[in-house]
Amino acid sequence: MKHMNSEVKEERTSNKKRIDLFLVPIVLIAAFLNLFKIWTDEYANAYYTAAVKSMLQSFHNFFYASFDPGGYVTIDKPPVVFWIQTISAKIFGFHGWSVILPQALAGIGSVLLLYVLVKRTFGVWAGRFAALAMALTPIVPAVSRTNNIDSMLVFTLLVATWMLFRAVRTAKFGWVLAAFAVIGVAFNMKMLQAYMVLPAFYVFYVVATKITWKKKIAFLTTATALMLAVSVSWAVVVDSTSADKRPYMGSSQTNSVLELAFGYNGINRLTGNTSVTGSSHKQPAQTEQQTASSETKQNSNSSADSSQSSNQRKSSSSQKMQAPGGGNQNGMFNTGNPGPFRLFQKGLSDQISWLLPFVIFSIVGLFAGVKFKGSYTTKQRESLFWLAWLLPVAVFFSIAGFFHQYYLIMLAPPIAAFAGAGAVALWSMYKQHNDWKSWLLPGGVLTTAALQVYIMSPYVSSIGVAPIAGVGALGVILALVLAVRKQRKNSLTNYLGAAAMVVLLAMPAYWAMTPIIYGGNSMLPSAGPDSSSGMGGPPSTATNSKQSGFNGMQPPGSSSGNSSSNNQMQPPSGSSNGGQMPGGSSNNGQMQPPSGSSNSVQMPNSFSSKSSSSKRKSGGMNAEVNQKLLNYLTKNNTGEKYLFATTDSTSAAPYIIKTGKPVMAMGGFSGSDPILTVSKLKAMIKKGEVKYFYLSGMGKGGQSDVITWIKENSKEIPSSKWQSTSSSAQQGPSGNGTLYEITLK
User: Fold this and answer.
1) N or C: which end of the chain has fewer CB within 10 A?
2) Contact assessment for residue 437 and residue 365, using Cβ atoms and an 8 Å cutoff
3) Residue 448 to residue 136: CA distance in whole angstroms
4) pLDDT number for residue 532
5) Does residue 515 surpass a pLDDT of 80?
6) What is the pLDDT of residues 58-110, one digit of tens each?
7) More confident residue, 490 or 363
8) Residue 456: exposed, middle, or buried by beta-carbon count in 10 A (0-12, 13-18, 19+)?
9) What 3-state DSSP class applies to 407?
10) Which three-class secondary structure state does DSSP give residue 66?
């Protein structure tokens, strides 16, 4: 107890010291990577931005996180992060950057928290290296520059970690309760993903606390009960509220938050079974590969067609769902194939794995000499915590059936912590010439440089040979020189160690800047020279990598004189989702090109680096408004609650953002939620709540009867009255839809 009290006094004394001047540039780097040019993203992820617009209009919408101002359906995630975004929009005004700002600040906050967590135990230089590694982990700024949830989730979990460490140091049970309660808050950000850190929390508390087993079990049981209570608090309130007094719970099949948490946002992520509405849209792996190979071949032929326009060539070459280096598709959404080395595969390794070999060597060094029966040092206990965070999360991403690349931000804190703590530990072992341990530093430098060369090699057409050769050559030279000079003690050896860390962080730093350099994707954020595509694979034949990515989506009713079916994204036959992706999911992510298309599947883009306007509007969805359609609907509205109804959120989101008026996404995000029935729709029409329906080829699953009834009982509005003919509009995911009007007496 005396030892713990002395630690608290030391902490208070250290807090009174001046700011670490080395930390200042690290924070500035993080601020630049997270904040620079976020003001150019007008819509961000339009699905979530539309929800913020709706939540600003009433407490009812705010509490339930309603996607639309009419309170028809919610978004597919819990509300806490969107409460924060709504508050930000209320303070600063409704803008793309104001809904991104909380996540950007959370990304910076995570860097600072990791510095504090690592510095106390492993030393100031370990804290600095850890903070820098966190700031330069490519997926961290890529996610933090969007209004997706994960950056805020990681920050919240690091806050809980700080509380847990303090609970152990002070031996105060209140901090244990606070730590687990904060995990409960994190559950209300992204549900079961927040629980990924629980093994680390349990293991660390059991190992680190000097109390009886009876008290450990009692304290952890109580803390876990509190965590569960906080976790389900919002869900219980929502699920116990009458369905007719709240929005439908989006992306659930039973209108239940708990079903959403443990099904769609839970177990289905592990199994990959994200099909909905009672029908599976999964394809066998062989079929997926055959489809991808066919698409790749078609794209190569299309790119070689001399009659194709320059813009079409650039779009075609950059929009392939092709694995790095060409050939087969690298797993669904380029997340690789399940297996023990998945994190080293193309598509994932360049997002998170740049320092993994060095981390492995660091783990060996930090646990060298540990006796499983006996007392542990503070360094060993906290190393065990980071290891218990790293391993279960790494195992999940190695075997999971469905996730997006940006989920990998969950691995960033333990990797950065081990990089910082390991750099100091391995350097100390190297200087002490401690038998085999002294070889860990040069071995870590060599293997990490080799992996980085492997990661960059598919991008040679985008970044050139020089940086790849430079990292490889410098890594080999520095590792060899460190090995040769192992018995010498002078200042040159110190500089060599610092140079090795600089070399290993150089390319992650460049990769972290790619969302700024090339543009980013707010719906599927990733880092790399093709970051605007959100696919995380290299642009294999792009004429200009800065122009690679996706060029927006067509607003409902827009047509283009120079567009073709090659630029369309259409759903697989019989699909209820049409290959759409929510803020973090899809119907197993299956996308297919339209029949006869010579181009590969296209994905929405949050903003391309070559934008004709200062504000980028594509927002990862169909984030453009057909003004002619809007004018027609506004003029002919006779008091209806909804401006119009459409199959899914893709068409609805930009109109909600633009006007703040209710637009009904009849089937929720993907068009597959079983929200509406024919009888319910008839009642709504008779009440005068809706009369216009925009229908396209997307999102028919689960509402085929409703759509059939609409077509059979409506009047088709001539396209000349509402359809835009602007030549600048691009063909959208569903081509030209049809506008219908229904009035029932």
Assistant:
1) C
2) yes
3) 15
4) 74
5) yes
6) 999 999 999 999 999 999 999 999 999 999 999 999 999 999 999 999 999 99
7) 363
8) buried
9) helix
10) strand
DSSP H/E element including 739: strand 738-741
Q: Which residue has the tokens 């106390």?
A: 120
CB atoms within 10 A of CB 273: 18
For the chain, the maximum distance between any two Cα atoms, rounded to a whole number of angstroms, is 94
- Taking the C-alpha atoms of residue 593 and residue 647, their distance in angstroms, rounded to an integer, is 20
CA of 660: how far to CAs of 52, 53, 558, 637, in Å?
A: 10, 6, 21, 15
Contact (CB, 8 A) for 279 and 574: yes
- In sequence order, the 6+-apart residues with CB closer than 8 A to the CB of 440 are 361, 362, 364, 365, 426, 429, 430
Distances (CA, A) of 354 to 139, 154, 250, 416: 11, 19, 37, 11
For residue 372, give both structure tokens.
Answer: 């499983």
Contact in structure between 734 and 697 (CB atoms under 8 Å): yes
User: To 10 degrees, the CA torsion angle through 31, 35, 37, 43?
Assistant: 170
Kindly state the average pLDDT of the residues 457-461. 93
* CA distances (Å), origin 175, targets 166, 182, 205, 219, 231: 7, 10, 12, 11, 18
**Mean pLDDT within 502-506:** 95
Q: Calculate the alpha carbon distances from 574 to 280, 281, 291, 602, 740 in Å.
A: 10, 8, 16, 19, 23
Helices (H), 404-490: 412-431, 440-456, 460-463, 465-484
Q: Are strands 645-646 and 664-665 parallel, antiparallel or unpaired?
A: parallel
Residue 21: is its pLDDT beyond 80?
yes
Task: Return the residue matching tokens 């509220």.
Answer: 241
Taking the CA of residue 619 as centre, how many other CA atoms within 13 Å lie in the half-sphere pointing to its CB?
A: 34
Of 708, 691, 541, 699, nearest to 621 (Cα)?
699
Which among 75, 419, 439, 431 is positioned nearest to 257, based on CA atoms? Answer: 75
H/E stretch holding 695:
strand 692-695
Give residues with Cβ within 8 angstroms of 184, minimum separation 6. Answer: 226, 227, 228, 229, 230, 231, 233
pLDDT tens, 121-171? 999 999 999 999 999 999 999 999 999 999 999 999 999 999 999 999 999
Q: For 666-713, what is each residue's pLDDT tens digit?
A: 999 989 899 999 999 999 999 999 999 999 865 455 678 999 999 999
What does pTM read for this prediction? 0.83
212 contacts: CB under 8 Å, gap ≥ 6: none
The Cα 644–Cα 633 span in angstroms is 7
Calpha distance 490→244 (Å, rounded): 76
Burial 467-481 (b: 16+ CB within 10 A, else e): bbeebbebbebbbeb
User: Structure tokens of 343?
Assistant: 């994190």
Split at pLDDT 50, 70, 90, the class of 267 is confident
Query: How high is the pLDDT of residue 487?
Result: 63
Residue-averaged pLDDT of the chain: 80
CA–CA dist 538, 317 (Å, integer): 11
Dihedral pair phi/psi, residue 695, rounded to 5°: -115, 135
